[in-house]
## 1
Amino acid sequence: MEALFTHWLTQNLLVLAGFSLIAWMLWSASHHERWRRAWLRFRSDRGGIIALVVVGIYLILGALEVLSFPTKGGGTRTVLDLFVGGVPAEKSYSAPLATRLLSEAKPDPVKATHLLGTDALGKDVFVETLKACKTALIIGGLTAAIYIPLGTLFGILAGYFRRRVDDLIQYVYTTLASIPTILLLVAIILVLGKGLGTMSFALGLTAWVGLCRLIRGETLRQAERPYITAARALGQSHWNIITRHILPNVLHLVVINFVLGFSGIVLAESVLSYLGVGTPVGTPSWGNMIDSGRSELSRDPMVWWNLVSATVALFGLVLSLNLVGDSLRRAFDPKRG
Amino acid sequence: MPETPLLEIRDLSINFATENGTVEAVKGISFTVSKGETLAVVGESGSGKSVTGLALTRLLPEPPTIYKSGEIILEGRSVLKMSPRELRNIRGNKIAYIFQEPSTSLNPVFTIRNQIAEAIKLHRPEVRDIDAEVIKYLDLVGIIDPAKRLHDYPHQLSGGMQQRVMIAMALSCQPDLLVADEPTTALDVTIQAQIMDQLRDLKKQVNMSIILITHNFGIISGIADRVAVMFRGKIVEYGDTRTVLSNPQHPYTKALIQCIPQPGQKRERLATIDHAALEATI
Amino acid sequence: MLSYVLRRLLYAVPIVLGVIAITFLLFNVLQTPQAAATLVLGPKASQQARAEWIKNRGLDKPKSEQFVKHVKNMATFNFGTSWKSGRELNEVFRTGVGPSLMITIPGFLAGLIGGVGLALYQVFVRNSLLDRSITLWAVALMSVPTVVYIIFLQAIGALMLNYFPASGFDWRGLETLKFVALPIIIMAVVNLGSDVRLYRTIFMEEITQDYVRTALAKGLSSGHVLGVHVFKNGLIALITLTVGSLPALITGSLLIENFFGIPGLGNVLVLAIGTGDQPVVMASVYLGSLLYIASLILTDICYALADPRIRLS
């Protein structure tokens, strides 16, 4: 099963599917008045547009790293490798644009110019940083795939049906929320083993609570409205009311929460890496780079490029996501700008 | 020799810069209000009547509002040229407001005593016993047992009482002009009549000028001396109330008056207004 | 009001039970008694020593019996001793509260006062370049991982400039400040970014309300309207939110304490997780959930008290 999933053809198809999904969502949104109006407002927010473009760049970088093709030797190379691969690895550390390795004993000359230096294993830091986009996007995407359906579903159920259903759902999420998140994350990952999949599962399990509360609140508000009572009076089934009336009216909150939540997830990865339950050591990830950066800073001479590069990359993505989220919020509700 | 009017509007034009382009809300209107006179400004939503009312003390937020041209002259001074401090001076003091939704126009976290007292302290610092003054004005607007009501919060009062409190608050500053922006629209019909009666009484007692902004021709008789009818930002008819009501000149005025349902009338359908046709007449 | 509080407390009971159950389950899946014994006694301990250790702690009894005993202990706040250090947990918690609060309270206050001040100012100059710049800066502040703040400030403040000790903690009167200065700065910075955004949203919500127009029509200055009218209305939402986060202050920031070696409650938990010290983790989580529920109830009460519309209905 694992082999099928990591096969290059599957990965390529997944990327294709992902982008098609995005395209389809944008297409169907353009048919709804509310989304069209919000887009017009969003468009005039220059900051938001720039941030969106930046997020898009990260998305493309990540996709390029997933898209791969078989090479003559029998292995696979990713499309990103085509652009920046082929930079030979050194033995160990070297500073950005340095001509020699960092070691004190035998500062050998470097095999190629490394824009941002090399890390402990001699890998080019710039290339590693770019490759780590994929990890961040995968974690964010998988986690979202888990927490968004969960949070939206239970939020709507709780807000619409109220009484017992609401009590039960509130009980579940209050109990979950009472347990310190870090403990829950660490526990789940230790039980299920380290890996991107389990990380996303654990993060998803803790993230759905926030979205659930938000959607529950909005559903409660919507369900009070006379048009819902009118629909019931006309004999509409619960399912129809939920899918046709409530869901479209809370969807924008889901989108905003997704964008802002994504940034939180990317940040959480760095915390998990610090605690030792982050991405496995072989996978390039900003969290791991920051974690190794911790001890590297106390070396003499100080190795800072690993930490700085990962931080800047992470910061760029998180900041852009936050700005896009803010712009979206303003676009859907200009008064609360 | 005719007295200088209290308020004179000359050829006033107001625009709004919105994300969809410039909106011309008021297009070159002119009218005057003399001391003790009541002017009714009648028109539908979007006619520019509320904008006109708020413009008198520049209460409209300044982007996006643009005062394109014209003059607002209050007692000989131009409002459009006033500094922020001068504007704050005339607000409440010379020109006071009551608004359409009394439930949201009053601050929910302060008692009614505090809200009225705030106005008194600001414009009439010489008043010693503020509580007595507040009670006096609450009584003036017809609130029963005002002493007991002093420490109530707005949500504890009915809609009609809230509006009376707003009127009391406006009057407590002893303004020369009261701008009433749709004061009864949000209230029940029976309460509407009560509030209008109250305003009529006050007019006699206090000799204050009033600008009554409304879409309802029905409430202006008995209180308005003159009436200005607004349509799409312009004044299409302006004159003495009795004359305008009995002998309207402009087709829009005629159409508006026809909309008022008359008791005893035998009609199958209520009259409506053909805006498209009337656009051509302005 | 009283019946309302009692009802909420009653609802809390199944939640706390749920929390205890989940943590109990997690640990019983994570660690077999054998593994726990090995962790505590060391890999060289004999089979017999391990068996004795397990027996002493009643870990060989059936799970259901253990669970009941466990619940009883939690309910009576009988936390026992740490597996690793052998210290009484009650004492551990008591000594841990001080350092945690020393860091979280100043950080919290900085976020609150700075946040409210900046947010009100932003509303005063709303939609101007200044307003947007402050928002951008606040968002940027929030977008840096806490870990990075910690690493950088520690590197600069302690290692390079040598003003502050890199880690550690000791009660030395005024000198104690040296140890907590960096953690407090980090806490404040991390809070400030998100607080400014939050409070701005709250106050912006108020500025569009009708009563603001009435206040301006009365002749009050923008400053007065903002500082008195808008502020007092915004205070309702503000109080609700800040009171809700008070109980969490006690538990302290896990990351910051761990990194700087501050012996606060947060560090206690992190170290306990790392060493598999079950009693400590169980007790910490239990207390944490109590505090969380307390914050929820406090929030509701404050909301009811602060808003006259609710208080007097």
## 2
Amino acid sequence: MPEVQVRKKFTAVEEIFHEGGPVSCVPLRRAAALAVIRNPFAGAYVKEISGFMDDLKPLGLEMARALVVALGGDAKVVEGYGKGAIVGAAGELEHGALWHVPGGYAMREILGDAKAIVASTKKVGSPGTRLDVPITHINASYVRSHFDAMEVGLADAPRSDEILLALVMTTGPRVHARVGGLKASEIKGEDGLR
Amino acid sequence: MKASIRKIATFVEETRNEMGRTIAPPTRRAAAVAVIENPYAGKYVEDLSELMLIGEELGELLTLRAVAALGIPPTSVESYGKAAAVGENGEIEHAAAILHPKLGAPVRKVLGGGAALIPSSKKRGGLGVVLDIPLGHKDAAFVRSHFDSMEVRVNDAPRGNEIMVAVAVTDSGRPLARVGGLAKHQIKGEDGLR
């Protein structure tokens, strides 16, 4: 399979102190790592593409490590995660699906034994397209306080023959979470759901 | 702390390849953005000195954040810029009060210098408004390779009673600069211009 060619990388960190309510003693932090790569399958229908997932594994690990560094260097602070991709106009949605395995397993590997499925979203778009990357708790998908999302995007990507890949990690619940449901303190940790 | 800060976002962009050419070392730039309460929202106030003091405070805080995100010594910063976006219940003059009277001195103190004007932009806008932060060489405003800008946006800001304040720094000029003009090795450094 073709080599992974990275045009640019981008890191965003948000530190949220409040949203009109009481100031949190520990601010919520969200971080996103983006990489803009050349889409080796742009412009034509290519039947066999799945081998590219293996090629993306080192990039996934590099981005997952960069997120932990952006959040202070300790993987233990990470409580939520998500992933996404925006495929440039000369590609197809299926090219974005190539990111599920290398993106998701990279984060689970870096975070130790994260049990929950990594929430994800993807679309075909143009430079400047925004993507709302969904976020759920890393060990139990039903933890309601950790349902969140982070908007990402770049003014100049993806060009039509590119794919924008995204990984997101967060350090806690929404800053004023108060709509009930399963709490992080109640996680059983058996099935990745509850 | 004079400013009431709701959130701080930092962004790092690293360009490794442009038009098939490897950028070595990659060009890198970072921005830090604070979302603060506008103490003068919804009313005309003649004396804007509180915002000037907030500008002074944010000049230091945001420069420290942006330089830390870039991971370089402050003295290695090559270009800089600043910008503000005022929510719908404020005036453009509120952005001016933050940016112009007092914000620059602490920026230069953190960087250990900066003879050139800090280029700036400002606007009023709604949530998710895009700020294009102009960039210029910190020692000589005429260095053409460093005329640039960095786009930032925060999807949930500025709310009507808020102001977004941004400082950007770089370790480099444009990725493939080749339109002539004053080069950085030709800086005389006497007047902040050449």
## 3
Amino acid sequence: MQSKALCCAPVRENRRFFPRQMLIMAKLTAFFLLVATFSVSARSFSQSVTLHVRDVSLEKVFFEIEKQTGYNFVYNNRVLASAKPVTIAVNEAAVDEVLKLVLKDQPFNYQVKDKTIVISPRNAAVPNVDAPPLNIDAHGRVTNEKGDPVAGVTVTLKGSKKMTATDENGEFTLKGINENGVLVFTSVNMETLEVKVNGRNDFVVALKTKTTALEDVAVTVNTGYQKVSKERFVGSFAQLDSTDFHRRVGMGIIERLDGTVPGVVFDKKGFNFPIQIRGINTLGIQNTNTSPLFIIDNFVVQDSRDLLNLNPNDVESVTVLKDAAALSIWGARGGNGVIVVTTKRGKYNQRFHLSVSSNVTVEEKPDLYYVPLISTSDYIDYEQYLFGKGIFRGFLSNLNRPLVSPVVEILSRQSAGLISSAEATAKINALRNKDIRKDLDRYFYRQGIRQQHYVGFDGGNNILSYQFSLGYNHSLNNIQGTKPDDVYTLATNASFRPIKNLEISAGINYSLGIQKSYTLNLQGLYPYLSLVDSLGNPAAIPYTYRQGYIDTVGGGQLLDWHYRPLDEARLADINNTTQSVRLNFGVNYKFTNWLRADIRYQLSNIIFTSRNYKSLSTFETRDLINAFTNLSQTAPYLRYPVPVGGIMDASSSLAKSQNIRGSLQFDRTWPGYHQLTVMAGGELSDTKGGFSEGQRIYGYDDSKGTLRNTMDFNNPYPKFYAVYPGRTGYILSNTSYKLGDVFRIVSAFANASYAYKNRYNLYASARRDGTNVFGVETNNKWKPIWSIGAAWEISKEAFYHLDWLPYAKLRLSHGYTGNVNNTLPGQFVLSNLPYVDQLSNLPYSIPGLAPNANLRWESDRIENIGLDFQLLKRRLSGSFEVFVKHSDDVISRAPMPPSSGVNVFTLNYANLKTNGYEITLNSINLNKGLIQWTTNFSLSHAKTILTKFYGGNAYNKASQFISYGLNPTEGQMPFVIAGYRWAGLDSLNGDPMGYLNGQVSKNYTNIANDTSKNQTVFGSALPLYTGFIRNTITWKGFSLSFNITGRFGYYYREPSLAIDFVAFGSPRTLYTTDFYSRWQKPGDEARTNVPSLSYPGPGSSRSGRTSFYQFAEIHIKRADNIKLQDIRFSYQWNNKRVKLPVHSIQVYVYPNNLNLILWSKEKLKYDPDFTGGGDATSIVKPVKTWTMGVTINF
Amino acid sequence: MNITTNKIIKPALKCFIIVLLGNALLLAGCKKFLDQKPQQSLFVPTNLDDLQQLLNNARYAINTAGVGSLAEMIADNYYVISSDWQTWLQAYPAMALNYNWDQTALPYSETWTAAYQGPIYYSNIVLDQLPKITIKAGEESKRDVIKGSSLFYRAFSYLGLAQIYCKPYSSANAGSPGLILKNTASVTEKVTRATVQQTYDRIIIDLKDAAALLPNTVIYPTRPTKTAAYAALARTYLFMRDYANAAQYANLALQQKNDLLDYNSLFPIGNPPINTISNPELVFLDWAYDVIFSLEGYHNIDSTLYQSYNGNDLRKTVFYAFGVAPDSTAYSFMGSYNGSYFRSSIFTGLATDELYLTRAECSARAGNKDSAMADLNKLMQKRWTNTVPYIPFIATDPNDALTKVLIERRKELVFRGLRWPDIRRLNLEGANITLTKVINGTTYTLLPNNLRSVLLLPLQEITIAGVEQNPR
């Protein structure tokens, strides 16, 4: 992107600002001041120099001259070490003049050529071309145009077989080279550069990124254990590099993989397989992990809050590991795939870089009209009809006093003769033109707003690299009047090389999250309610209790018992604080050039405290006090067993995790032919999670801190609002104390990678893990896991002459990974409960899971073949991968007869098999002058079949295959979806009809219990094919990119109206417009599938009728769709001329989660990726977000 | 703190070094580090207290053996109104259809499951684990109590289940399918159905063993005593129509405990009218905790039953309340011996009133009308209001005595889960009790000794365990 000409022979290290002794971070402050000073005095370039300094380093003087004049100095660091301090005072002097003055007493010569000033030792002998060449050892560092180190660059001495490659710091050493030789730097992504040795042994080389190469080609793969150059990596992975990662904006980290990396499918319907990498590998039985393993930098994320609390701005890249060669290093926990999050680090020998960014995201209000509902007036008409039929008689006379709607309340008063018919009609008609959605929209919901602010800097010199950042996030949710959530983050890490071969690194990640928001879902209320009264004050709505009852009960001696939603949002006083600290420490020692030892340690600690104050004004508190008020008592403690005052719920929890890893790394290159890397080591992990304690304080006054500490939780007290006068209940003590769970894992691992002639790569990896599975003998706690892989860069072969395919690499891998569940017991155990038995007040236990001493870990065997290629003069690059995955010994649950004592027995039984492929293409379509157009495309396929399942499908009922989720049966996909066969509506009464034993039937219960084979099995409820295509067009500083995603080969169930009368018992039912098209008279069956609704009669009684209709095949649709997911439009200004400290400024707008369906296979009423249940209440409309932001780089 | 740190760090460091050195020594070295239990609340039972702690789970497992709520649902103490039945049908179709003995009703599994996964499973765990535990000196009696309790809980559950899922005991039915008799806690054990004879044999053997091991008194009413074992044996023999043995064990029990509660002391009527713990009649506390029977919910007292109480009979006021049943003309049952505990359940345990009635019935059947009337009057005196003089029951002959005892048994032991076994038992003797229920104007009938008076086993027992289903 930076078009500034690159210096091809930079002979000087970038260490202007750093006196050698300045090693500690504290001194950075002084350094900033210095930067500020220089910045302020910066002017445009001139040919004259003004300088007033005393006893400053020569380096600093050079820098100042450079700044004022724009000249570049070229010198060798070691040469400059002999410089003396300089004292000089000149005004508007010519450069030449100043140089003469400055170098007068220094042992240097200078030479000016164009705008470059070359400094050389005064006494250096003029190289004698005839003299025999000397063998010297060259060290150096290779960077890109941004000054960032480039790994994997091949360094060759021209005309010889001497060669090496740069390491992850971009550094290289090439021994015994000719001092007059020429070094050739070559790399796939960088332009080749030749540099004359000229007797030097210290090089800093900046390479230019190939303009034809794509920018997002990953250079290194971080497996969490190693950084491996892409060329040498034999495994399968997908990566969001820095550019792609930061293209998406927002709070989430993992979410950014959605629709942007091949092989990863996000389930947005909230089932417990949220992220699937290459299909399904486990059944998730008994809390077996279904999620991929997350890694931050080096260690497994033991507590998901560590990931949630990480600031996305601190993230450098995210890598998804997919095949055995990539995963086996993670052993028994990598079975569901591994996602490695790499955070930003400072780099050695990199200039100081400061970045400030800020963005604001607006989240749209909930769309209350997404589900088409019947009009309020029609709803009332139907309530009146049902009232006339007497359906509410039971409710109204029931001493449980169930909640009834305001209309029913009015009608019941009318029928009791309490109000006249005209009065009732007037009252009801007044409700007819109301719509609760208007009030919700106006008074309850708002747009959510999230702000993200971030400042970070990094840099480094020869011996220290550092990174530091501060972040602040501020979110307002979409409910009016609730308080904001804030997150503060701090991240810093530093690496330090005190002596030549030793590196010490340490880092701190701290985050403080303060959640004060309150969420309340009010959708689905009676349609004619109002949230505000005629004066605009919060209004009460029917809630929990029959309104007529609470209006009169207690004769005015109780607290107000009404529920006003608008008040509740305002009164909520929640303060949940999450403090998370991650400390890293590492030591790396290089014994020789080829042998290193590395020890890393991480401590992660999360403290969560929650404080939820429910003042006397909140409904929950008033309700509890009223319920226990005993008006016949006068002693305050008896009259108010729950004291009149606020309630405070306070709790805290603690999670702690420690990891230590040690390894030895052997890395040796025999130039030209062999390169061998071996790593072996061990790791220990100890995680304690879930310790928690909680307490409820009654009678609490938050302004004074006073409370009542004489509560009686042990005796029952009479309760108001009970069927039987004086029914008793206990006051909830809510005191809890829970010991944490412990997860331990011990691992030993080794891997080796061998490269021959840089074109053949072999890789092998092995690992053994042990965990603290309960009651299993230690011998059975261990499991070996291994993998092998190979890669062959065919295009490097001498016989290879395909000009149209300049790059081709074939990769193969085979191996294992696993999935562990250490909560399953191997022997008979009891579990203590943290309560006492209610009768005896004695502590008690329950039996643990039925023990199975033969439990093993789930095992995944993966075979993968991949081809990486570049075409069309390297303008099109991509890869193609095919894989097969066998998940064996998957933890299953066998259904047991009740007489056994348990419902299920856990055992390793099921097998799954996944086939699939992934295609990735990246192309530069246009690269002419100022315009560049690139396309990234990917298509992935993964299909999982349950090849073995306990009991096959002998006991599987049709009703078990109708819901979205895991519906396991042998020979089918685990997320299979089926529907009841549909035989239309009964022409006599509009009953839905299905099939039983091949005959048309209305025996809904038996149809539900029939085998799924006799009903219609559609296919996968998860997309079998996913893909995306992202186009980016840049012109000058403008850039426009948009991502289009596709999900194919799957089905979803369109929610439909629950057409029965049970629904009227519970008021929060959505009556969709399907109601209008219901069957009403014979003949209607020809035009509609919506069953009849009348009382008494069809729809009022038959059990299973509603669910038969809702889960019938007519509602299942192909969900295949193509969506516009996001658009990013940005403008970047790069500072090329103006002498300002700013390097670049980028402003952008980013609409995300658009979910704009561009194409769908069938007409879809609702978004199939968010909605999938049977009932209209399950419909969710995805929420769009709009982000604007700015990033400034200094 | 230091101690715990050392506990982790020492084995961890040792293990880490071993792991670094190579795989060869891995297993032994890391044993200590990996032996940490994953969940702190889990433990392997190692002593008697651990096992007792399992049996302490009274509320949710052990003392809910009574299958009384299902027995009440299919008997004739109460009815539900049609609209409530419709609601049942939507929410719990198997329950609704069993209520009116529908021929097509699917098994209602909850009751069977609660017993097998509760007291039977728990007791078998304890009986399995007991021999593995080292008994310290002086702990023998504690062990005996735990063992006796387990035998009692298991037998008491079997007794309740046999009334629902097996044909009533008779010489003709002795060979017909009985219960699944689980004698170990192994969940993978292959099971079959025993015969009715074997089922009752097992119950009697276990109860007799329990009686020998159990103490005379206990602190907690949820734990069985010797008296409870005798009372359970009396009930068992009565159900088997072995009236001599029933009388003998009722007598043994009453020798230990014969207190009665004077219902006059319950006035003014409190809420609940009868306290559980202080009730002198309580022998063993057990209740049916089930979704079926919810006092707040659905039940309406059969008006014939309500009208059968004399105006001076305090049970009419103590047991029943007006104005709370869904049917606005009906009464509701209020007088459970569960008292304030779990009003949504019914008392299915053992009490002295039942023992008096059992002994009275056996005396009458044995031809001894006077002792029958003595027992009956002793009980009824405590049920009669003291505002009028008590007129003792008098029998003209043993048959008359039996009739009078059975009438009072019907009125005294309502909502105890005992009406259903009594109907089955008496129908074997020609009582010819036909049950009817009316829903939406349709009358449903259960004729005496009909196949449908033996309920179906849960489907999983048939499909997974492969046992025999009851015929329809």
